Each structure stands twice: as structure tokens, then as C-alpha cells.
Amino acid sequence: MKQGIVRLLFSGVIVLASCDRESNTDLNFGDTGVISAVELQISDEAELISEDIMGIAEDVYATDEISTVSKNNYRSDFLPDCAIVTTVTTDTSKEKTIAFGEGCELPNGNVVSGTMYLSYNKDMGLATKTVELVLENFTFNGVAVSGGASVVRTGATEGANPKGMASWSFEGVWPEGEATSFEGNRTREWIEGYGSGSWGDNVFLISGSGTHTNRAGKTHTKEIVEPLRKEWSCRFIVSGVLRISRDGNTASLDFGDGTCDAKGMLTDAEGNIEEVTLRRFSKK
Length: 284
Description:
Elements: H1 21-24, H2 37-70, E1 84-89, E2 93-105, E3 111-121, E4 128-140, E5 143-154, E6 163-173, E7 181-192, E8 203-213, E9 219-231, E10 237-246, E11 249-257, E12 263-268, E13 273-277
Antiparallel strand pairs: 1-2, 2-3, 3-4, 4-5, 5-6, 6-7, 7-8, 8-9, 9-10, 10-11, 11-12, 12-13
């Protein structure tokens, strides 16, 4: 296990590629003033990668936290048997290795491989704790992803839900070699399912902002104006609104009314509305 494992010094790239490589090869994303549906599909795919990485980290940390607080041998059913978690305890910290081998399918259907490292203070009684994360030889649905995150974690208290305030930056390479970047600062509030041991009833509300630079070098700023609702029983965001800005142009993306689907409504600066399909890793 790597000691002093991670600090958020990563300026990152997540490589995002089109599901239809041939039809999108010649697109110059961002050359026009309009923020297109194709741009949003690629950007949204980056967020899916980040959300699942942070979800894995949160699940592993919470398993340790809940076991300590409840004094029971708590076990989450989110990670499949192909994910091997080992722990090394030092004088001050817990260093966890989550090894996915050459390919491990998560309950939501996404396939990961490689290794994730977590490090945090071993005193589980602390009200606030920083969890640091780094990836090694890690892939997500075939995308090679590296980089790290730092999460300030507050546990459940009377009248308050557990929260993770995360800053992350990842770097990745698609098999085709296309490159973009994605960084974010977001708060994930665990509003349902904490401590149940069943991954399917976990629900999070996500707030914050981030940036995404597409493969043409155009940077989008994304701000959550209505919290995004992430239900682990669904591989998509089911509700909430994002505001996206690029080169002085703005658009908003409404993820819907709670239905589990890959659809969103894109509204441009002139009020034109278009239904878009997101999460292009999905086979649905």
C-alpha cells in the first residue's frame, strides 16, 4: 500500500469518445455558439465516470464507519465478489486497497478493472474526516482513468444525513486516444439507505459545480441549480437541473421528474427545448 497515499495535485483529463465513432469523427465540438446535444452527451459520460468512482469510495468508507459505530459486522452488498478489499492499519491511518482485477462488473452494469486506494484517519469517532483517493491501472468501461480525489466526510448525526464534500480531477485515455478534461467540487448527501446494507435503496442528492473541456479544447462550466438525485437502483440521474456555460453561451439540462431513463431536456439561451439522450455508456 502506498503511504501518505494521495493529495489532490492532479490536473486531469477524462477522455470521452462517441458511441458512433464514424458519424462523429469530423465534428468540431464547440466551433459554433450553440451548446449542442452531442457535446452534452460526451460531457455527461464524464460525470458518470466520476460519480461511480466516488460512489465506490463512499461505499467502502461507509462500510468501515457503520461497522465501527454500530459495533456489528456490517457489510454492504454493493461491491461484487470480484472486488477484493484489503486494509493496512498504521499508527494514524487506514490504507485500503480495492482491487478489481482484469474486469469486475458493478451492480449497475458498469465494468471496472485495476486498483483504487483510499486513505483516512483510523479514528472512526471523528466528526469530520478527509478521505483521499488515487487510481492505479484503472479502467471504466474500457476507458483508462487515472487521477485522484479528496473527500471531506461528515457522518450521520441526529437530524443530519452523512455528506461527502469532494474535489476531484481525473485523467484518462480512450482506446481511440481522444482527450478531454473533467474536474469538480461537489457535495453528495446520502439521503436514503444509509446503513441498510442494500445498495439498491441508496439515494444521494448532489450539488456543486465543475468544468469539462471537450476534445476541441472548449471548456464548459457546469453548475447544479437544482440538486441532482442519484438513485443507485438506476444508472442515470433521475432529476435535477444543470446550467452549462461556454464562451458566453448558456444552456440548461433538466434530468426529469424521477423516471429512470437516459433522457434529459436541453434548453438553450433562446428558450428552444430539445430532448437529448445521455449516459452513452448505457445499452438502454
